[in-house]
């Protein structure tokens, strides 16, 4: 038996698994494309060849996959369903508050416990003091698995038993970041037009490290070495738009930002760093 199984080994899932292994936990991993599981064997992971193997291997199942639809799909097979009783499923995939509510209901019906988490930041922050993860659901379940999970972020906060609260806060955080990025691009345009170097912008008025990184990416024209991509942020924006639509909230700011992302996608910048949006603003 392992202490925890990690399902989904993309850039975020593999970082979560490696961090758990570095902290000394026994980890089983599963990924759709098996070559990514083999990369983790050297770090000490056990391989789950199937989802059923990984669910059987541990009491806590951490899922970090592209979206909730995929999560539901991989847990719905006749091999996996009977193994869910008494497991604690921790969803760290991105999604909407409504999806968190629906997944809690579904997993509880299948006999599992369910916690819903949100990762605020990039894989680089995982396992560091600045890493931030929010988690919602039954406090009893959280207490049962927090000793394993807490190594993943210096700032790991339990947001209460309202299962959608982590995702609501996640979307609120993402909204702030996206609005801020629009201001950063405007500021960088002013510097470019005013003949002020973007390195000077970084050294004087950049509000945070991400603004400095974007200034550097633009100045060095290194858009193809992303910190995080246009695509990742477009997906985040999509979740905010979906939630705003679900609850009937005003979306004028979101519509403005979505137009920039749509134009970046049409121009072929999806796999480039978020800083590539400057090319749309220009
Ligand atoms: N990266 C970030 O900065 C960041 C930050 C916060 C939250 N997140 C969230 O974390 C989650 C994972 O992100 P990531 O960056 O690791 O993404 P990623 O690198 O694109 O990896 C996606 C993962 O989902 C799996 N997957 C996709 N479709 C699947 C399917 N139909 N069946 C089974 N597996 C499937 C992929 O498997 P294959 O390897 O087989 O393709 C891979 O393991 C996402 O929900 C993302 O929004 C990411």
Put the structure in a nutshell.
The protein has 282 residues and is an alpha/beta fold. Helix content is 50%, strand content 13%. The chain folds into 2 domains: 159 residues, 3-Layer(aba) Sandwich (Rossmann fold), CATH 3.40.50.720; 114 residues, Orthogonal Bundle (N-(1-d-carboxylethyl)-l-norvaline Dehydrogenase, domain 2), CATH 1.10.1040.
Biggest sheet character? 8 strands, mixed
Could you say which overall geometry the principal axes of the C-alpha atoms support?
globular
Strand content: 5-15%
Going by helix content, strand content and strand pairing, the class is alpha/beta
Q: Give the strand line-up of the largest sheet.
A: 3-2-1-4-5-6-7-8
Euclidean distance between termini CA atoms: 55 Å
Name of the CATH first level of the largest domain: Alpha Beta
What is the average per-residue confidence, as pLDDT, rounded to a whole number? 97
How many separate domains make up the residues? 2
**Order of SSEs:** EHEHEHEHEHEEHEHHHHHH
Q: Which second-level CATH architecture of the largest domain applies?
A: 3-Layer(aba) Sandwich
Rg of Cα set: 20 Å
CATH superfamily of the largest domain: NAD(P)-binding Rossmann-like Domain
Number of strands: 8
Tally the helices: 12
Ligand kinds: NADP nicotinamide-adenine-dinucleotide phosphate
Low-confidence stretches: none
CATH topology heading of the largest domain = Rossmann fold
């Amino acid at each position: 038996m392992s202490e925890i199984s990690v399902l989904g080994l993309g850039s975020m899932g593999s970082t979560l698994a490696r961090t758990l292994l570095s902290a000394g936990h026994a980890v089983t991993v599963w990924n759709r494309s098996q070559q990514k599981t083999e990369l983790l064997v050297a770090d000490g992971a056990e391989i789950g060849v199937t989802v059923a193997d990984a669910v059987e291997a541990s009491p806590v199942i951490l899922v970090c996959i592209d979206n909730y639809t995929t999560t539901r799909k991989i847990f719905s097979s006749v091999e996996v369903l009977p193994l869910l009783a008494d497991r604690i499923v921790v969803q760290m995939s991105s999604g909407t508050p409504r999806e968190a509510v629906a997944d809690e209901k579904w997993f509880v019906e299948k006999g599992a416990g369910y916690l819903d988490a949100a990762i605020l930041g990039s894989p680089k922050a995982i396992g560091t003091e600045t890493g931030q993860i929010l988690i919602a659901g039954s406090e009893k379940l959280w207490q049962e698995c927090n000793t394993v999970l807490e190594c993943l972020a210096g700032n790991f906060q339990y947001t209460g038993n309202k299962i959608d609260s982590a995702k609501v806060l996640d979307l609120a955080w993402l909204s702030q970041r996206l609005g801020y990025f629009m201001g950063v691009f405007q500021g960088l345009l002013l510097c470019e037009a005013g003949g002020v170097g973007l390195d000077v912008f970084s050294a004087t008025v950049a509000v945070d490290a991400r603004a400095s990184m974007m200034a550097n990416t633009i100045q060095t024209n290194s858009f193809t070495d992303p910190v995080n991509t246009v695509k990742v942020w477009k997906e985040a924006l999509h979740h905010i738009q979906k939630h705003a639509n679900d609850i009937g909230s005003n979306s004028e700011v979101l519509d403005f930002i979505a137009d920039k992302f749509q134009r970046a996608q049409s121009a072929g910048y999806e796999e480039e760093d978020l800083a590539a949006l400057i090319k749309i603003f220009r």
